[in-house]
Amino acid sequence: MKSPDRIPLGRRTADILEQEILNQRWTKQLPGYRELCARMGVSRRTMETALQILTRREIILPAEGKKARLINPDLAKLNAPSPSERKSLLIYSPKALQDLDVVVRKILEKVTQRFNKKGWSIEFHHNSEFAKGKPGLITERLQRDCPNHRWILILPKYEMIQWCMEKQLRIICLGGEPVELRPPLVAVCYSSLLSSAADNLIKLGHRRLSILLTNTSNNGRDKIANHLKSTLTKHQIHFHSNYHLPHIEHDNVQSHWECLSKLFAVSPPTALIATEPQQISTVYSFCMSKGIRIPQDLSFIIVKECDNLSWFCPTPAHYIFPVAEFVRQICQWVENYPTNIDGHNLLEAKLEPGSSIAPISSALQNK
């Protein structure tokens, strides 16, 4: 298994600030702590660590009392292109960079590194409008200020994609819900991924399995249900939405625990598929409290890469995403925007079995 991504938050914050400085967001001095912490969504202690790192890198000058941190004037001597020659990239996200999934962070870090070296201007924006998929005043202002930018949309919802296409913005979608729209999009098909996980478990003999699905729109849930139903039917398993895709009231520990309690009270599943990293600790804690052994009594798969998989024993089975292929396709589209809209590129993730899945035992099969 690949070692988990463990870049400290202070260093990640320093990397982002360095990119902002090199992109000339600030040219003489940085804003105060309050503004920087609010912008990056980190604590003062984390920001202090980040500024110490930038000082060691000679990006900013050493602190002088309580004065604002000055940017190293030697940076201005770099042979950067003039503003009129500079190409621009805007990354629009539902969350701050440090709060995005591991795979998305890896992809964006490699993409921004590549275009920083090419002298592109890069901006990163996140807000509630984008998270809700409801374009409003903030998104309209970005459209007015950045009409000629390439836009990378992170997991955009249908209405956001539709609005951007109507405004004829040059968008590239990293995941998302395009439905019948056909923007340039690179992704792993989520419904196919979940069906693949189910298929792998069924081939090990598991017929009672459930997917812990959260943070999905009604359209997305319907698509997943249709894919899963097709997979189960292929193996002569009757699809029950309340069992195979149980409703989870809220995306928190209590709701997940209540869902697990109901499942195991009715007909204990022999396999679970998790869709969010925080579900791992809930499932493992629940199993420990009930004396359920993984994988002897329950096989378990998480369909994402996570920071802390090595912390769990047994190591959860998970999917590894083709980061290099994501980066290659996005960079190609950013530099040479497709003239014919209809650029869906669906990639495949590979199952890393870990040690949390096993063939079903005869005792469980006969229950």
Automatic annotation (TrEMBL):
<dbReference type="InterPro" id="IPR046335">
    <property type="entry name" value="LacI/GalR-like_sensor"/>
</dbReference>
<keyword id="KW-0804">Transcription</keyword>
<dbReference type="GO" id="GO:0000976">
    <property type="term" value="F:transcription cis-regulatory region binding"/>
</dbReference>
<keyword id="KW-0805">Transcription regulation</keyword>
<dbReference type="InterPro" id="IPR036390">
    <property type="entry name" value="WH_DNA-bd_sf"/>
</dbReference>
<keyword id="KW-0238">DNA-binding</keyword>
<dbReference type="InterPro" id="IPR028082">
    <property type="entry name" value="Peripla_BP_I"/>
</dbReference>
<protein>
    <submittedName>
        <fullName>DNA-binding transcriptional regulator, LacI/PurR family</fullName>
    </submittedName>
</protein>
<dbReference type="GO" id="GO:0003700">
    <property type="term" value="F:DNA-binding transcription factor activity"/>
</dbReference>
<feature type="domain" description="Transcriptional regulator LacI/GalR-like sensor">
    <location>
        <begin position="198"/>
        <end position="335"/>
    </location>
</feature>
<dbReference type="InterPro" id="IPR036388">
    <property type="entry name" value="WH-like_DNA-bd_sf"/>
</dbReference>
<dbReference type="Pfam" id="PF13377">
    <property type="entry name" value="Peripla_BP_3"/>
</dbReference>
